[in-house]
Amino acid sequence: MNRVFIYLFLIISPILAEEMAYQDNIDVEEAMEMFKEGAVIIDVRVPNEFIHTGHGLGHINVPVFYETYKPKSLKVRMNFARMELKNSKGYNSRKLFDSSIIENKEFVKEVMTIVDSDIEQDIIVICHSGQRSAFAANILAKKGFDNVYNLDGGFLSWRDADYPWSVD
User: Does residue 62 have a pLDDT over 50?
Assistant: First the structure.
């Protein structure tokens, strides 16, 4: 696990320890039934995950956080590439970047736009495994959204259930 997501976990953990403000954690079968009946699925992962790891068809990406990268010096990156070639081995390329996590200040506003200001709309929040989505679901519930659910197991459970998804 990289240090950025460890940092993110440390930020979210105390918040998750608070009382759950959203409706419930639901399993993937419940989520699919609700989705068929008109629930909106909000995927709160960073865009890179949504694009490259895959996403459920019809899920809307509204990141709760963004991850930014600033490359280290060109000299460091060139030496890294040489070292990989010399040793015929790949190394942790995250060390080539300084990264930081930034909260999406427009998160609630963007969700409000998606549901056309209908705070009673059923919303299922999804992330990779269910941690960030619980955090995001709490944010929405505390801002007045009535029917917010967290998909237990996140996108991994959606994909493993063989529900429609794509990496394209």
Answer: yes
Buried b (16+ CB within 10 A) or exposed e, 111-145: bbeebeeeeebbbbbbbbebbbbbbbbbbbbeeeb
pTM value surpassing 0.85: no
- For 133-144, what is each residue's pLDDT tens digit? 999 999 999 999
What is the rounded CA–CA span in Å between residue 133 and residue 144? 17
Q: Over 70: is that where the pLDDT of 100 sits?
A: yes
Q: Which fold has domain 18-64+104-168?
A: Oxidized Rhodanese; domain 1 (3.40.250)
Residue 3 burial (CB count, 10 A): 10
Helices (H), the chain: 3-17, 28-36, 47-52, 74-87, 107-114, 131-142, 154-160
Where are the domains positioned within the chain?
18-64+104-168, 66-102
